[in-house]
């Protein structure tokens, strides 16, 4: 395998590096650590009460917009960058190496935009796509429910047609960034008699609509990234359905040729393990770590270093397949499964490396090794093996689609 860039790829990488040089100074300072919530920084700053934060968000967004990289995977005719999968990979790779935050609405760019481009009316495209590209609207995803997660087609939120409106009742959960969002895209049941994958419609709603309540769900680290949403007689225009009524499942499954290598996760893993190794070789690290006393821990650190490089090569495998016109299937499940579980192993290892010092939670406590990043990562990272497809689901995909085993 050739890990080197082609001439065109090398030139594009130079362009990306010129973008990163424009990173606001506050973001540069924040990028020096793990910065676990960097992917939400732009969304939070755009609605901050601090004008400097707002200015950082605007200025950083403008750098992307000037290059048409806000939606790098959208076709150019819709305002996107029209980048190849390899160019998307390089863009994400360089941003991850610099620990620089992205911009724009993740759900709007990655889910709604592609769905509208394929299934939306001309009016919907002209109404909803430009605000996403301008950073004026942030979207969130209303798919999962208390009784419908991995088996999403079992969802029960109802939308009943009433004249020129739909009336929505039900509950959604694990709505990431719903408290930052302006609009929400929904899968709702519009035909209760149809088979469960049918009878579902794809709807769009202003999250400030009367009858919508967004409640926070706090994780074990006191972080607030997800929410639960309640819909009580929420009325939306029937023009806010994407695609045909009762065919929303197929709209929701629509994706364009969007790069899905998870190179960000692989590079993040490499940076974390390298930071640990560098720290435990310092005087402070030698004092606070147990690596010199326990050969098993030293071996685990070496294994974690190998894991990070395996993750990186999984990412290269995925992007190589996409660049050759192939669609990763079980290969993507292998990458996701390995990556999410390797991340959990690394954070757990970090707490073992620093022993009793891992009881220190406050990152500002000078006694905390590496600003308590492994302690916080271990506690906050529980959803990692669930979100985006649980490890159990990934193993089923690998077994049936990869190994050809029968369904049990």
Descriptive labels:
14 helices; single chain; 13% strand; alpha+beta; 408 residues; four-stranded antiparallel sheet; four-stranded mixed sheet
Quick overview:
The chain is of the alpha+beta class.
Structure description:
Strands 1-4-5-8 form a four-stranded mixed beta sheet. It has a four-stranded antiparallel beta sheet with strand order 2-3-7-6, with no helix packed on it. Helix 5 runs parallel beside helix 9 (263-280) and helix 9 runs antiparallel to helix 11. The protein starts with 6 loop residues before the first helix and ends in a 6-residue tail after the last helix. By secondary structure, it is of the alpha+beta class. It is globular, with a radius of gyration of 22 Å. 45% of the residues lie in helices and 13% in strands.
Secondary structure layout:
Elements lengths: L6 H14 L4 H6 L10 H5 L5 H16 L18 H13 L8 H14 L2 H12 L5 E4 L15 E5 L2 E9 L9 E7 L10 E7 L5 E7 L5 E14 L3 E2 L5 H5 L10 H18 L2 H6 L6 H29 L6 H24 L19 H8 L10 H12 L6
Parallel strand pairs: 1-4
Antiparallel strand pairs: 2-3, 3-7, 4-5, 5-8, 6-7
Helix pairs in contact: 1-5, 5-9, 6-7, 9-11, 9-12, 11-12, 12-13, 12-14
């Amino acid at each position: 395998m050739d890990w080197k860039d082609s001439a065109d790829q090398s030139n594009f990488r130079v362009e990306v590096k010129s973008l990163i040089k424009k990173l606001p100074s506050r973001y540069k300072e924040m990028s020096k650590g793990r910065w676990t919530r960097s992917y939400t920084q732009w969304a939070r700053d755009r609605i901050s009460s601090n004008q400097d934060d707002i200015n950082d968000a605007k200025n950083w967004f403008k750098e992307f917009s000037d290059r048409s990289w806000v939606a790098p995977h959208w076709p150019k005719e819709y305002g996107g960058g029209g980048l190849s999968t390899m160019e998307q990979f390089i863009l994400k790779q360089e941003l991850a190496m610099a620990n620089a935050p992205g911009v724009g609405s993740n759900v709007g760019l990655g889910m709604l935009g592609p769905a509208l481009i394929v299934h939306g009316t001309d009016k919907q495209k002209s109404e909803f796509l430009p605000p996403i590209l301008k950073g004026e609207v942030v979207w969130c995803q209303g798919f999962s429910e208390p009784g419908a997660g991995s088996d999403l087609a079992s969802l029960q939120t109802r939308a009943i047609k009433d004249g020129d409106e739909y009336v929505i009742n039900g509950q959604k959960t694990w709505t990431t960034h719903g408290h930052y969002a302006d609009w929400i895209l929904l899968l709702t049941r519009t035909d209760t008699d149809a088979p469960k994958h049918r009878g579902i419609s794809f709807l769009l709603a202003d999250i400030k609509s009367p009858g919508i309540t967004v409640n926070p769900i706090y994780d074990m680290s006191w972080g607030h990234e997800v929410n639960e949403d309640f819909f009580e007689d929420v009325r939306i225009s029937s023009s806010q359905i994407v695609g045909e009524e009762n065919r929303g499942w197929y709209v929701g499954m629509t994706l364009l040729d969007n790069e899905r290598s998870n190179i960000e996760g692989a590079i993040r893993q490499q940076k974390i393990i390298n930071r640990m190794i560098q720290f435990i070789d310092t005087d402070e690290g030698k004092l606070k770590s147990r690596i010199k006393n326990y050969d098993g821990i030293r071996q685990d650190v070496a294994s974690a270093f190998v894991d990070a490089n395996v993750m990186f090569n999984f990412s290269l495998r995925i992007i190589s397949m996409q660049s050759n016109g192939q669609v990763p299937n079980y290969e993507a499940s292998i990458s996701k499964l390995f990556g999410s579980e390797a991340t959990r192993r690394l954070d757990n290892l970090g707490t073992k490396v620093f022993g009793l010092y891992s009881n220190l939670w406050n990152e500002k406590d000078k006694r905390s090794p590496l600003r308590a990043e492994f302690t916080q990562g271990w506690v906050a990272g529980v959803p990692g093996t669930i979100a985006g497809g649980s490890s159990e689901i990934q193993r089923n995909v690998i077994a049936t689609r990869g190994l050809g085993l029968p369904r049990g």
